[in-house]
Amino acid sequence: MLTDLTIAQASEGLRKKEFSAVELTKAHTDAVETLNGRINAYITVTSDLALEAAKKADAQLVSGDAPALTGIPLGIKDLFCTNGVRTTAASKIIGNFVPPYESTVTAKLLENGAIFLGKTNLDEFAMGSANLTSAFGGVENPWHRKGDPSVMVPGGSSGGSAAAVAAHIAMGATGTDTGGSIRQPAAYCGIVGLKPTYGRCSRWGTIAFASSLDQAGPMTRTVEDAAIMLTAMAGHDPKDSTCADIAVPDYRAACGRSLKGLRVGIPAEYRAPGMSEEILAVWQKGIDLLREAGCEIVDVSLPHTKYGLATYYIIAPAECSSNLARYDGVRFGERAEGATSLDDLYEKTRHNGFGEEVRRRILMGTYVLSAGYYDAYYLKAQKVRTLIQRDFTHAFEKVDVLLTPTAPTAAFARDEKPEDPVQMYLNDIFTVPASMAGQPAMSVPVALDSKGLPLGLQLIGKHFDEETIIAVGSALEKAAGFTARPDLRAGVSA
Amino acid sequence: MSYTLEGNTGTWEIVVGLEVHAQVISKSKLFSGASTVFGGEPNSQVSLIDAGFPGMLPVINQTCVEQAVRTGLGLKARINLESRFDRKNYFYADLPTGYQISQFEHPIIGTGIVEIELADGSTREIGITRLHLEQDAGKLMHDQDPKRSFVDLNRAGVALMEIVSEPDIRSPEEAGAYLRKLRQILRYLETCDGNMEEGSMRADVNVSVRKAGEPMRTRCEIKNVNSIRFVMQAIEIEATRQIEIWEAGGEVDQETRLFDPHKGETRALRSKADAHDYRYFPDPDLLPLVIEQSWVDQIKQTLPELPDEKRARFQKDYGITAYDASVLVAEQSTADFYEKVAKGRDGKSAVAWVTGDFFAALNRTGKSIEESPVSADSLGAMLDLIADGTINGKIAKEVLEEMFETGEAPIEIIDRKGLRQVTDTGAIEAAADDIIGKNADKVEQYKGGKDKLFGFFVGQVMKATAGKANPAIVNDILRKKLDG
To answer: Active site at which residues (chain A) (predicted)?
Structure first.
């Protein structure tokens, strides 16, 4: 089936004229039509635009001058502004916003020939770990526990992207990762999710959550596909002052690279008390596989890991409280009716427009930046952030890459959602430190747990050394031989 | 000289510090490519960044940074090679992103100095605390619709330099002198046009009062005063208000006030309790601003001669008074004009002509020095014609007027109208004899001791020669004839 192909395979098939871009796209738009009603992976489906673009891609393929992603149908997280296509951030407050501009990352994908199937669902403004805060409804994880029809969450915030890729209703998708929003849903949905180094991809045109942490990255079914997508997405952008002016290598070339003599660090602090045996077992499996592949396994310490989550939940809300101030009902987006004053307009618009979790984070952020609290919270958190960064610097003096679990658990059922928001925040415990330090990190699916749900391992690399995590990731992927597919996917169920 | 106010309980001195917002001269805004030209159609100069659209990011405009450094150098201030941008968070309809990008903790320019001159000729140094770059807000229009307010974002994002003085100012006069001097420096540097009517320079005025020798008392901030005259008035009115409160046993509240020039009062805008909590934090969209010393040095090379140095040099090179030099350097264009006229000529006579008849003629015709029909070269040529005796000073005034009207060279006017000075002693003697003969009675009085009548004879001879006689020769001949 065309929907079962990887990006690499499809790209080759298109070039060999085994099928056309229109056929490939049609297979996906049909599958979206069949499955999206249930999975809700897409907020906005753009099948007509996709098929139009596919015709052009076919012409390009005939001319022989077709860039890497020509004719490849992708899902785009609905946080990337897309010219003329509604961009909602899964929020009511900009639920009808149609940007007159294209984000740098999606523009680069378009230049590389990619076809967009639609805008994928997410937690509102990327704030959440289970895709339960979207104003457009939750996303269903295509995976289910063996013999249990309970709806599982896909993780978040890039849950729509992860579910779409897992269910074969996109060959790949863009995600954004602030504290784990690419890696954790990738682990929950049994796919690959790569968060590049902070500054590797431009943030221009991507709706901001926490500017010092937000980073776009690919979500795919193989490491090689992630490498292909990242090569297209990354690169310097003068419109984003924090985007690095560093040449983009051909990341695909790193796949299959020998791991002989590579040092893999195992941070002691990630062995959290009370962690499930199954997670520990899959971690051990990863260690063994990499050792067999020729890596040297080294015990390392990241002593400030335990402060990661607390620090993150000061800095990210602080930045979000400021970044989301622009949604005020004055210039674009929703505006509350019947306001009697400017303050009333703000209060009504923002109360009605933002969901509970977003409001909670805005309040937290406003609090920690307030006079009298700034030093105790924000400033202290920035200092701890520096210590966390230093942990990684020290660790990378000894090793080339770190291997950890991606999340403390497998996906949970929608009705098992913890009532305490702090319990929910714990999902990010292993992903947040790399975000705080700006390190590149990738989740690779390695095994299924006893209930049949996928588990992922996380590789964390040195700044701008995505190549090493791709090399190790592709070896791990090969060694683990993870071929399981969810029961809910294109061409299987309906 | 010290300025004080008399209250019922004694003498009060005032303490003033000024925060000046000066709009940076640059083609585009501080963080976007939108134009900064004044007076465009509402919302015609707004980029998506200025309007705070989702996903938009600021990128620092290098020209604005250069202008801030230039200004810092002009204020003899410390240039901070590393500075930082912070977000100042508050909600208002003229502030699209909900925060203003400013420099809170780490400004680009540190302490500096402005020297002011006072009417009695004395000078004082006013300390500069800091200068930082920040964005301007948009403008609300409340008069376009009965029910709604409109927002014009043309100004939103335009670069401002906030220049903060130390509380060194002790009188309204000093405040005025400081603002004039600051504006002069900014204009010399071409970093701000200093146009207060268009709002490109505005001042927040911090005022407190105290008895001599006391520490500082509570201050009030008067926001957004838009002329030097109003700043001076506001200080006196606010200081008087505060003295009345203190003397009545009250307490001055720290608050933000507005100056109403029509009513001649200041009014409370918001108290300290209502003050915004701006929740400053470093803008994560921008990296720390790091500049190189070598770049600062390069900018320094291009700095013009500033008013203080120019004034000192004019006094030294042209032998003119401090007062005259100050008048000349007030505007760069005037100084340049004067220097062209004075070069290689008598500096004193040049200043007399430039600030005297020339300025008067400009005033009369309502023209600026740039529009003057008489060029510096032309005025210089006229001065040469006085020096070599071709015309005398009195005729020169007439020639200058004609020059203003026709734009002709002085020598052409002199020849066309036959105004050359008469140095022919025979002709002057004949005229003198004629006058003496016709005024025997006055000759008698003069000889009888009425010395003042000498002037009468000189005047009559000049009149007889249509003003063209050389006054020195006329004097000589009359002395000989009357005293001899």
So the answer is: 77, 157, 181
pLDDT in tens, A272-286: 777 889 999 999 999
Domain boundary residue, one of B299, B326, B360: B299
Verify whether residue A241 is a known catalytic residue.
Answer: no
> B279 and A322: CB-CB below 8 Å?
yes
The domain spanning residue A158 has which CATH number? 3.90.1300.10
Nearest chain A Cα to B93, which residue?
A330
Domain that holds residue A157: 2-257+473-480
Instruction: Verify that B185 and B320 share a domain, yes or no.
Output: no
CA Rg value for chain A = 21
Is B220 within 8 Å of B238 (Cβ atoms)? Answer: yes
Nearest to B55 among A208, A318, A366 (CB): A208
Residue A464 lies in a domain: no
Q: What is the pLDDT of residues B180-189, one digit of tens each?
A: 999 999 999 9
CA distance A214 to A199: 9
Chain B nearest C-alpha distance from A323 (Å):
8
A330, A367, A380: best mutation site toward chain B, by most B Cβ within 10 Å? A330
CB-facing half-sphere around the CA of A144: CA atoms within 13 A: 12
How many angstroms separate the CA of residue A174 from the nearest CA in chain B? Answer: 16
| A260 part of the active site | no
Provide the token pair at B204: 């927040």
HSE of A314 in the Cβ direction (CA atoms, 13 Å)? 21
Q: H-helix or E-strand containing B238?
A: helix B228-247
Residues B283 and B209 in one domain: yes
- Distance from the Cα of B287 to chain A's closest Cα (Å) equals 7
**Contact call for residues A253 and A469 (beta carbons, < 8 A):** no
Phi and psi, residue A82, nearest 5°: -125, 125
pLDDT at A493: 54
CB-closest option in B53, B93, B277 to A370: B277
Q: What is the DSSP letter of A413?
A: B
Shortest Cα distance, chain B CAs vs residue A348, angstroms: 14
In this structure, how many other beta carbons lie within 10 angstroms of the beta carbon of residue B213? 6
Strand partners, B422: B469
- Cβ-contact B428, B460 below 8 angstroms: no
Q: How many domains does chain B have?
A: 3
The CATH number for B474's domain is 1.10.10.410
CB contacts, 8 Å: B104 with chain A? none
Option in B93, B99, B287 nearest A322 (CB)? B99
DSSP percent split of chain A into helix, strand, coil, nearest 5: 45, 15, 40
Q: 3-class SS at A376?
A: helix
User: Is A320 part of the contact surface with chain B (CB cutoff 8 Å)?
Assistant: no
**Chain A residues with beta carbon closer than 8 angstroms to that of B285:** 208, 211, 241-242
Interface A–B counts its CB contacts (< 8 A) at 100
The number of distinct structural domains making up chain A is 1
- Answer yes or no: is A423 within a domain: no
Average pLDDT score over residue span A171-184: 98
Yes or no, beta carbons of B53 and A332 under 8 Å apart:
yes
Asked about A119 being catalytic, the answer comes back as: no
Interchain contact B147–A (C-beta under 8 A): no
Q: Tell which wins on pLDDT, A372 or B424.
A: A372
Instruction: Answer yes or no: is A78 within a domain.
Output: yes
Domain of B453?
425-483
pLDDT at A417: 83
- Regions in chain B scoring below 50 on pLDDT: 1
In a domain, A206, yes or no: yes
Give me the catalytic one of A26, A77, A119, A462: A77
Residues 6 or more apart in contact with residue B483 via CB below 8 angstroms: none
Rounded to an integer, what distance in angstroms lies between the CA atom of residue B99 and that of residue A113? 38
- Pick the residue of A211, A328, A370 with the most B CBs within 10 A to test the interface with B by mutation: A328
CA atoms of A29 and A35, how far apart (whole Å): 10
